[in-house]
Design brief:
Shape: elongated
Distance between the termini: 19 Å
Number of strands: 0
Order of helices and strands: HHH
Length: 69
C-alpha cells in the first residue's frame, strides 16, 4: 500500500479541507462584523476578523498538509 506522501489527497479529504478553510476564514469575519455592529467600531472588527481568519486558515492548511510535505 502506498504511503500518505505518494498517495496524495482523496476527494473526500479535499472537500473537508475546502470546508475547513471556508469556515476558518468566514467565521472570524462574521464575528468581526457583528462586533462592529454592537460596538460601533467599523471597520476595526472587520479588519481584525479578516486577519484572524487568514491566520487560522493558514495555520490549519499547514497542519492538514504537514503529513504530505
Amino acid at each position: 500500500m502506498p504511503s500518505d506522501r505518494t498517495r496524495g489527497l482523496s476527494g473526500t479529504e479535499l472537500i473537508g479541507l475546502g470546508v475547513f478553510l471556508a469556515a476558518a476564514f468566514v467565521v472570524p469575519l462574521v464575528v468581526g462584523l457583528v462586533l462592529d455592529q454592537v460596538a460601533h467600531t467599523s471597520p476595526v472588527g472587520l479588519l481584525a476578523g479578516l486577519v484572524v481568519g487568514i491566520a487560522a486558515a493558514g495555520f490549519g492548511l499547514r497542519a492538514q498538509m504537514r503529513r504530505y510535505l
